[in-house]
Amino acid sequence: MANFLEPKVKRYTEIRDHHRWTTSMTADTQPPIVDHEDIAKVAVAAFQDPVAFHRRAIGVASEQVRIQEMLDLIAEVAGKPGYFEAVFITDEEMEA
């Protein structure tokens, strides 16, 4: 979730400037979130045992949470409970 902290959060201007994230995902979607430290752990393991990782695709996810839950966690850690809002657009809104 380091992508939601400075300086990387600058890529997400809607979250930074308007405190909301508009998404086409549904409220129940739980996207996999990965932290750079978890990626590093897998990379270290691959370097330490290249035979075990040879020609393998490895999926890495630190956790899966609903979008609003993720935003609530970020707000809580930032000391701003309820600061961020997830906005879920409908299929009709996407087609407009």
UniProtKB/TrEMBL annotation:
Lineage: superkingdom: Eukaryota
Stored InterPro entries: NAD(P)-bd_dom_sf
Protein name per UniProt: Uncharacterized protein
Organism of origin: Xylaria grammica
